[in-house]
TrEMBL record:
<dbReference type="Pfam" id="PF04981">
    <property type="entry name" value="NMD3"/>
</dbReference>
<dbReference type="InterPro" id="IPR039768">
    <property type="entry name" value="Nmd3"/>
</dbReference>
<dbReference type="GO" id="GO:0005737">
    <property type="term" value="C:cytoplasm"/>
</dbReference>
<dbReference type="GO" id="GO:0043023">
    <property type="term" value="F:ribosomal large subunit binding"/>
</dbReference>
<dbReference type="InterPro" id="IPR007064">
    <property type="entry name" value="Nmd3_N"/>
</dbReference>
<protein>
    <submittedName>
        <fullName>NMD protein affecting ribosome stability and mRNA decay</fullName>
    </submittedName>
</protein>
<feature type="domain" description="Nmd3 N-terminal">
    <location>
        <begin position="7"/>
        <end position="231"/>
    </location>
</feature>
């Protein structure tokens, strides 16, 4: 005589069991989805960069809802019996005016459809990213000194700045105009050197590199890179 299989919790018979439980009771007893109780979304108040996975990232067309969803899912833990799951998120405020995210999951445990909802508090913070903080403090690691061999300095400046990409613009911490020419101050010397390389690949120019405040530290030459670019 064969024994009937039944759930030790609800008594359902002839169902696919997970251990000694039917899928429904398994879902009730187990925390199928673990999410953080709260997440923090940090945005630069000046440039709009987002703090993602331990670094500042400039991403366009990414909403707060997208950031919250990505952060929750990055930290979420799923029971290995949950399959074919889908999720959706809605932002709102609780009775105290705090931002909350209601994330809804649907999936399957064995052949049974399961629905789970989780509430996550959202902390929205504004700060200054590293780049904007350096710009505010006029920090720089390289200077490109634009000079002219002949012709109008203004024309040379227009030509020089026509090579500016978003990366270049975001790395500028200051511009100083003097009698001899224009000095462009860059946060990153890599960006400054890449810009100059792009220009000299297109036109003939005199380029000289030197270091301001040069010193040796651990056997390496340190100081502000100065690139003289004469067009």
């Amino acid at each position: 005589m064969s024994r009937r299989k039944f759930c030790v919790s609800c008594g359902r018979e002839d169902v696919e069991l997970i251990g000694l439980l039917c899928p429904s009771c398994y879902a009730k007893r187990k925390d199928l989805i673990e999410v953080p109780s709260s997440v923090t979304i940090r945005t630069c108040r000046i440039c709009g960069s987002k703090w993602i996975s331990g670094k500042w990232v400039r991403i366009e067309n990414l909403s707060i809802e997208d950031l919250v969803y990505n952060e929750i899912m990055r930290r979420a833990k799923m029971d290995d019996k949950l399959t074919e799951y889908q999720s959706d998120l809605q932002m709102s405020k609780d009775k105290n005016g705090k931002d909350v995210a209601l994330i809804s999951f649907s999936g399957k445990v064995a052949n049974e459809v399961i629905h789970v909802q989780k509430l996550v508090y959202v902390n929205l913070e504004e700060a200054l990213c590293d780049s904007c903080m350096k710009k505010r403090g006029r920090f720089y690691d390289a200077v490109v000194q634009l000079r002219t061999r002949n012709g109008s300095l203004n024309e040379k400046r227009v030509f020089f700045e026509s090579f500016f990409s978003n990366e270049v613009i975001n790395n500028l911490s200051d511009i100083k105009i003097g009698k001899e020419g224009v000095d462009y101050y860059f946060i990153s010397r890599t960006v400054a050197k890449r810009l100059v390389s792009s220009i000299i690949s297109m036109v003939k120019a005199e380029v000289k590199e030197s270091f301001e405040g040069e010193s040796l530290k651990n056997g390496k030459r340190t100081g502000k890179l100065v690139i003289s670019l004469r067009l």
